[in-house]
Design a protein that fits this description.
Distance between the termini: 54 Å
Bound molecules: 2-acetamido-2-deoxy-beta-D-glucopyranose
Strand order of the largest sheet: 3-4-6-5-7-8-11-12
Helix content: 25-40%
Structural class: alpha/beta
Main location: other
Family: Belongs to the peptidase S28 family.
Catalytic activity: Cleavage of a -Pro-|-Xaa bond to release a C-terminal amino acid
Radius of gyration: 23 Å
Shape: globular
CATH architecture of the largest domain: 3-Layer(aba) Sandwich
Number of helices: 15
Subcellular location: Lysosome
Mean pLDDT: 90
Number of strands: 12
EC number: 3.4.16.2
Length: about 500
């Protein structure tokens, strides 16, 4: 069986490509944290060129963006510009509490721009996903050009306002790349949990799953070891019809496993469950991919403390209890659905297309340094899957050529923040490259914890990360203002 690949979404999902069609992606639930303040914004639409890079296709589409200017200090208060990821922009807007919390301090206007092909920003309306011809304009380059053009347009009305880009996950990659490609448009960027190096030959393909495994290993005695043993136990028990039936009942599956191939889907669903838990291992009760308790991996691991002599049945009973922490924390789920791993929907198909074109992110496991079944990375197998789905093939090295790979020291004013618990830190910038390409590590942080609303349960490391991020923002804004004071209206063309 083929390649495992991983898809970022603000969260992300890792899955077997072969299971892609049925088992799409991360779904995101509402965040319902009680301290969350009410937010208000206005919605606007901007006419964007469908193709920024050729002149034959001259059509336009409406890009959605949200503006909150309650705290904006006229006429030159800064603009914090969220570079939208692969999903509905209102969801990212609602979940990026950090921006809402610092807007007043900075006298800043907040803008959240939707990424083309997601949410309402569809270049060809309902036909946008109909075939590869219509999908042809779904690239990060086009998305960055959308952001740059939109910012230039906003700035024509407020030329003295410095703009800082902010984003998390794929949106964090875009935030960093926006500063790299359009330094005339944004004075600096915060790239939170942005795996800009998760591309071929930049980091080890096994690093991601090693971090997932470490999270489980340190959250409970024998926890990672028992998950490592569970795959063989599943293989053994699923080898008979009665075993399949037992598994289906034990895990309260909505659709019973019938054939051995169902067991393959079942295993990749479990694997994705453990990965998702690693991304959302937050210090407080939260509802990001699913409603979960504080430090959910510790709760999961309470069910997986046995020593190695346990029977396959007892082991898998523990695994089912552990999985139900993720799928049934609220006690309201009637059965577990191996076709989904989180609650609401992102632009799943869009991200699959992006992974199948530019965003080639190799992933592999060895079962030794990680707790998963060994699986090599094969670009060829991945490429074949993509060809089967879209009739196009990925370009393995293009992202590295386009965005500089590890040779980015000529750029400036970018903060890369990463959580030590977040598997995506494997592809992140985790050391200081220069004085102005700064890495901020949050050892107790999962996936972009720093962008979330602050809470009384935040570990000190995320509090100081946010304070440092704010300090860099203030420095960039100061510098931009000094400069424009000297030269007249900087940034105006
Ligand atoms: C975001 O919040 C607004 C206002 O609270 C709400 O109307 C909207 O449904 C939310 N969007 C998502 C995707 O959760
Ligand atoms: C496989 O499962 C059977 C029960 O179905 C059990 O008796 C046996 O010990 C298991 N084999 C291994 C190698 O765990
Ligand atoms: C979920 O939890 C509730 C309450 O404990 C329980 O009644 C229900 O059977 C559980 N659902 C599953 C699928 O295990
Ligand atoms: C399982 O999830 C899939 C994909 O979201 C959905 O189409 C299907 O209806 C779900 N099945 C059940 C029984 O909820
Ligand atoms: C990078 O430099 C900043 C500023 O000196 C410092 O706060 C931060 O800890 C450094 N990051 C790493 C990963 O060493």
């Amino acid at each position: 069986m083929a390649t495992v690949t991983c898809f970022i979404t603000l969260s992300l999902a890792c899955l077997h490509v072969t299971a892609l069609k049925s088992q799409l992606f991360t779904r995101l639930g509402d965040l319902s944290y009680s301290s969350e303040p009410p937010i208000t914004y206005e919605t606007f639409y901007f006419n964007q060129k469908i193709d920024h890079f050729g002149f034959l296709e001259d059509g336009t589409f409406k890009q959605r963006y949200l503006v909150a200017d309650k705290h904006w200090q006229q006429p030159d208060g800064p603009i914090l510009f969220y570079t939208g990821n692969e999903g509905d922009i209102t969801w990212f807007c609602n979940n990026t509490g950090f921006m809402w919390e610092i807007a007043e301090d900075l006298g800043a206007m907040l803008v959240f721009a939707e990424h083309r092909y997601y949410g309402e920003s569809l270049p060809f309306g309902q036909d946008s996903y109909s075939d590869s011809k219509h999908l042809n304009y779904l690239t990060s380059e086009q998305a960055l050009a959308d952001f740059a053009v939109l910012i230039q347009s906003l700035k024509s009305k407020m030329p003295e306002s410095p703009v800082i880009s902010v984003g998390g996950s794929y949106g964090g990659m875009l935030s960093a790349w926006l500063r790299m490609k359009y330094p005339n448009v944004v004075v600096g960027a915060l790239a939170a949990s942005a795996p800009i190096w998760q591309f071929p030959r930049m980091v080890g393909c096994g690093d991601f799953y090693k971090i997932v495994t470490q999270d489980f290993a340190k959250s409970g005695q024998n926890c990672a070891a028992n998950i490592r043993s569970s795959w063989k136990a599943i293989n053994n028990i699923s080898s008979t019809a009665s075993g399949l039936q037992w598994l289906s009942e034990e895990f309260s599956l909505c659709s019973p496993l019938k054939a051995k191939t169902d067991a393959v889907v079942f295993k990749s669903w479990l694997q994705e469950t453990w990965v998702n838990l690693a991304m959302v291992d937050y210090p407080y009760e939260a509802s990001f991919l699913q409603p979960l308790p504080a430090w959910p991996i510790q709760v999961v691991c309470k069910h997986l403390t046995f020593d190695s002599k346990v029977s396959d049945y007892d082991l898998l009973h523990g695994v089912s209890q552990a999985a139900k922490v993720y799928y049934n924390y609220t006690g309201s789920s009637s059965c577990l659905n191996t076709s989904q791993t989180a609650t609401s929907s992102l632009g799943a198909l869009g991200w699959t297309y992006q992974a199948c074109t530019e965003m080639v992110m190799p992933m592999c496991t060895d079962g030794v340094q990680d707790m998963f079944e060994p699986e090599d990375w094969s670009f060829q197998a991945f490429s074949d899957e993509c060809y089967g789905m879209f009739g196009i093939r990925p370009r393995e090295d293009w992202a590295g050529t386009l965005y500089g790979g590890k040779d980015i020291s000529s750029h400036s004013n970018i903060i890369f923040s990463n959580g030590g618990l977040d598997p995506w830190s494997s592809g992140g910038v985790t050391y200081n490259i220069t004085d102005s390409l700064v890495s901020i590590m949050i050892p107790d942080g999962a996936h972009h914890l720093d962008l979330r609303y602050s809470t009384s349960l935040d570990p000190p490391s995320v509090r100081s990360a946010r304070a440092l991020e704010l300090k860099y923002f203030q420095e960039w804004i100061e510098k931009a203002k000094t400069r424009s004071g000297q030269t007249g209206s900087e940034n105006q063309l």
